Amino acid sequence: MIKLAIDCFGGDHSPEANVKGALIALKSLPDLFLVLTGDEEKIRRELDGKDFDPARIEVINAPKVIGCDETPTVAIRQKKDSSLMRAIELLRTDESVHGIVTIGSTGALVAAATLRVGRIPGVKRPAFCPILPTMDGGIVGVCDSGANVDVSVQMLRQFAVMGSLYLECAYGIERPRVALLNIGVEAEKGDELRKAAYPALSETEGVNFVGNMESRDLLSGGYDLVVTDGFAGNVLIKSTEGACLEMLKKLKKDICSRTINKIGALLMKRMFDEEKRFMDYRNYGGSVLLGCKKIVVKGHGSSNDAAVAKCIEQAYRMQAADLTEKTAQGIAAIAPEAE
Amino acid sequence: MIKLAIDCFGGDHSPEANVKGALIALKSLPDLFLVLTGDEEKIRRELDGKDFDPARIEVINAPKVIGCDETPTVAIRQKKDSSLMRAIELLRTDESVHGIVTIGSTGALVAAATLRVGRIPGVKRPAFCPILPTMDGGIVGVCDSGANVDVSVQMLRQFAVMGSLYLECAYGIERPRVALLNIGVEAEKGDELRKAAYPALSETEGVNFVGNMESRDLLSGGYDLVVTDGFAGNVLIKSTEGACLEMLKKLKKDICSRTINKIGALLMKRMFDEEKRFMDYRNYGGSVLLGCKKIVVKGHGSSNDAAVAKCIEQAYRMQAADLTEKTAQGIAAIAPEAE
After folding, report:
1. In terms of domains, do A40 and A4 share one?
2. Alpha-carbon distance B33 to B42, whole Å?
3. Residue A337 has pLDDT above 70, yes or no
């Protein structure tokens, strides 16, 4: 049995999306058990009349919610009875709970997971690894995408190891092709960090390093994992998403500006619907925080029930493949080569 | 009269695109004089039979070409008789020559412009400032986009001053809205550099600082200039361009996959042609290297004649507005507040 804590608050459509998502996941995964945290009355109201096995759900009352505008370190100290902190506390104290899924405050999650749940021995810093769809129908992960704005070569090596194992365990990608985000493909490109990281990644046990990648090639399908510092990773992810969304918006506006375009678009409705689905981040699960002692999945704040269900299924797959244990071994294997 | 040196080699369509572009620019700007550098025989062959005033063109023979794969510092030392270095030498020695336009090696250009032409007094490092179209029909500049991978707060302040003056002089944008690229909009976001740069930019004379910008908002039209280090700037520009191009490619593929889509696209042909034109970087001129003693414009390597002409017109506007002198004054005005 796999047991996960579900933080039911903090998202745009909470708790409805969280609770409904939990029930979808329960239906598709027979040996899953879920602990829902948050305002119990509101959660029970969402569960009311729904078709599910009550023996596979537990609700823990936690009336408070940590908002995205709160200072993470303060919030996690002061709001112990929040939906997030009760879930985190469960991870810390209950060995049988394997992970957490939340769509609430990212900052509070990183602080709480790092400080309360703790890191896998040897891991310098946990790192986010969101997944994006590539234009050839595959996926690409980016690690780190924002948890660590200042990184070292050793941290980049760890991101490569953790991200590779994640892609293998959760997506079945064998020997993921790992690239270093840089401003040119040549080995000597970039700042001091990148110049030092290139040879270090080439020699890192368990990492299939294929060289530098320029940001324009992120969606090309040529790479499975891109390692980078959290600042550049954040810029990379958000500018890629932003450009795609702005372009779709522009297309929509231009279509509406002329009747002939509207007729054309009507004929292409099925295609445009597919493009929209392709672009919808909610179809690709959450961003996982790699390197913690337990599985941590952060879904988008605007997640609907289907998106929450995807995040739960993602956490399930990671635990089913024993990712945490494998990561501990992978990190231990590269430890002797520290900077 | 404005006099510019045109490096006629080093691009994908050189020297044809360079020479034809030069003639287009000469036609549209009556008081322009151009010095073409490169293999004289090949340049003369391109000029042959064309309609232009020979009194407004000079050709300087420089048979060699610096390739994009050459090490910049070595190439600029060893290839003094290359088209780029002869143009740079002209800038250095001839007071009447106001600037250079090239579509050749970026690395060699930065090295040569910095070392041979020199910086405006007080400028710590020249920086690139390419222009992108925004979705509301405007433009946005990004400074630096790759010349400096490691920067200081003082350098970011200078990028803000130089970029603002450039947008005012070359594009008539009054009090350009300047943003700092960051991983969140709050003042306290980012690494140590960004945290220190935020208040410093707020207090910088001549800079209309509007706060942090997340990369997803680059094309929104809410900003005129984004300042950043060259690493993140490079990631920003290339991922934005890359995502737009990959999306267009995907649309094209999906359109071809079904007959009904092809019919729809046929009706929308005019719109799709407009989108393609909108996306074509060649319509937005080159990336200027700000902070040098003379005007430096670098066009895309794949520039055609129209794109080269745009770069020349851009250099012309910068010189006509006396950008170099204004930059010297702007930099001097912020110098006392150095770090």
Report:
1. yes
2. 20
3. no
